[in-house]
Specification:
Strand content: under 5%
Helix content: 55-70%
Number of helices: 6
Radius of gyration: 28 Å
Number of strands: 0
Order of helices and strands: HHHHHH
Oligomer: single chain
Distance between the termini: 54 Å
Length: 228
């Protein structure tokens, strides 16, 4: 039996599945564009990240730069970002041939390529969800269900890991709370599509059961009396 009878309490499940497909299709397209731009500018991003880590990261035993590092403060952090956006901002960044920058740029190359491939796959899954919702084919909906569930788990795990790495502060807890709320909304919409999958399965099962029933009522009345 489906979890829900209607999507968002206002539309039927097939319309809701079509809406989810359109929404995730747009999300995939609008995510591929910044990922491609980040891939193209990964060297500059690596320099910015290394600069931020040198300034705000916790010192280790190998790199003891406690005198140069500052504690993470949100106001000061955004002040540093605004300084980097000025004309002389790039002069404060590490050199392009810095060992940390080159290693991070290589990692970003792999990361952004994998992300773009996953987004393209998710775009295809969204198209399959739209077509499956219109045609009433539940197996076309299954790839979207699997991909969306994995994305929700990865999003929650990423936010929890970010909170641990950057420290438990009021700002990080606020971001984590927002991420949990977003994940709950996404999980509800995912359950709506699960309900569509179950509804189509029940309808297919009922059609098969109807075809297997014996045909007791027929229109055959025997041989006409005038031909006997």
């Amino acid at each position: 039996m489906p979890c829900f009878q209607r999507c968002c309490c206002c539309v039927n499940l097939r319309t809701g599945g079509l809406m989810m497909g359109v929404m995730t299709l747009a999300l995939s397209v609008f995510s591929i564009v910044p990922m491609a731009l980040s891939l193209n500018n990964r060297l500059y991003l690596s320099r910015v990240v290394v600069h931020m880590l040198n300034r705000y990261a916790k010192p280790t035993e190998e790199v003891k730069i406690q005198d140069q590092q500052s504690s993470f403060e949100p106001v000061e952090f955004w002040g540093t970002v605004s300084e980097l956006l000025k004309k002389d901002g790039p002069d404060q960044l590490p050199a392009e041939d810095d060992s940390k920058v080159t290693r991070l740029a290589a990692a970003m190359l792999i990361f952004f390529i994998v992300c773009i491939i996953l987004l393209v796959v998710y775009l295809i899954c969204s198209l399959m969800l739209m077509y499956g919702s219109v045609r009433g084919s539940r197996w076309l909906i299954l790839p979207w269900l699997v991909a969306t569930f994995l994305f929700i788990l990865a999003y929650i795990a990423g936010m929890c890991l970010s909170t641990v790495l950057f420290g438990i502060t009021l700002l990080s807890l606020a971001f984590l709370t927002i991420a949990i709320i977003e994940s709950c909304i996404a999980l509800y919409l995912w359950l709506c599509v699960i309900s569509l999958f179950q509804h189509l399965a029940d309808r297919q099962a009922s059609n098969q059961a109807w075809e297997l029933k014996p045909r007791l009522n027929t229109s055959y009345k025997g041989i006409p009396t005038d031909e006997r």
